[in-house]
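Render Glutaredoxin 2 in 3D.
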Amino acid sequence: MALLLAVAAGSSAAFLHAAPTRRTTPHRGAVVRLQVDDFVDPDLVSGTFVVDELAATWARAGKGRQLWKPGDKTDSAALDYKLLYTTWKLNPLVLHGYEHCPFCTRARLVLAWVGMPFVCRFYGYGAGADPVKCEGFGYDPVEGGVVPLIGSKVCPVLSGAGVPVREGQLGLPESLEICSFAAGVAKDRRIAPATGRKDIDEWLNRVKPTREALERPRLLRMAVPDFADQRDVAYARWKHTRSGFDFDAAEKATPKLLAELAPLLDELGTMLRGRDPAHGSMPTLNLWGLSIDDSLVLPVLRSLTCVKGLEMPPLVREYVETGCARAGVPLFTEMAS
Ligand SMILES: N[C@@H](CCC(=O)N[C@@H](CS)C(=O)NCC(=O)O)C(=O)O
C-alpha cells in the first residue's frame, strides 16, 4: 500500500493529464474526499494498472469515504451518539456566560458534574447591550457578547456540534434547558432531575432581596472578565439603578443584611438531607445525591462568597466549597469585599 501510494504520488502529474478511457475502479459511492494534499484521486484518473490497484486498496481500507459529522445518521442511533460524544471530546462544547452570573454558574456546575466536555467563554457584561436602548450604556450591540449566537444579550448559551438550537439561532440559551440537555446526553455521570420541593422554592424567594442587596455592589468590584471594562460596570450600575436599586444604601445596610441572612443560612443547613458518594461525599439537598435542585441553590451560595466576613454554618460552607470544587468552579472568597 505504502509503495503504491508512493508510486501514484510520484507520477501524479502524468495521471492528471491522462484522460480516463474506462472505469474499472470499484464503486465507492458518490462522494470521495482524499485527505492528502497533492495526491491523485484514482476515481478521476483511472485506466492504468497502478491506479486501479490503488483505488481497490482505498476501497478495501475504507479510506476516501466521507467522514461522519454531527447531524449525519448511520443506521444505529447508539453509534451516532458515540460518534457525537467523540466529537465533543475532540471539540469541546462552549458555554458562553458571565463569571458572576448565577444562571451561568448553574449550567456550568451541571455540565461539569455530569462530565460533559466543555469550555467556558466569558464576556464583558455591557457587551451586546444597545446604547440606543439603554440610555447610552452598553457597547457592540450587534457583534458583542452572545448577540451573534441568539440575537439577544442573555447568558448562558451553549454552542457546539450537535447542540439543539431553535430556528435562526446558533446556540442554546436558558440555563435549565442547557442542564436538561446535558443531563440527557451525558455519558460519564448522572444527575437526578429536580423535585419541585416547595421548601427550596420558598427559601430561594425569601433569600433573594437580602442576597441581592449584599451581592450587587460587591460583584461589580471583582476582578472578573464581566467587569474588566468600566463600560461593563457602568452598564450594570445603570441596569440595577433604573429598577430601583440603591447601591450606596445597600452597602451601608451591610450589618443589618448579614443579620437577616444568618437565620436563612441556618435554615438551609437543615434542608440538606443527603450526601453523594459519587461526588466525594459532598452534601446534597436530597437523600439520593446530586440533583438539579442543587443547581438552583449552589449558585446563590457561590455568589454570596463575594461578601467579606459572611459566615456560613459549617455544613452549608462544606456544601458550597465541595459542590463548586467538584465542578472546577472557583468561589469569590479571595475577591470578597
Ligand atoms: N432564564 C434565564 C435567565 C438568564 C439571565 O437573566 N441572565 C442574565 C445574566 S445574570 C443576563 O444575561 N442578563 C443580561 C442583561 O441583563 O443585560 C436562564 O435561566 O438562563
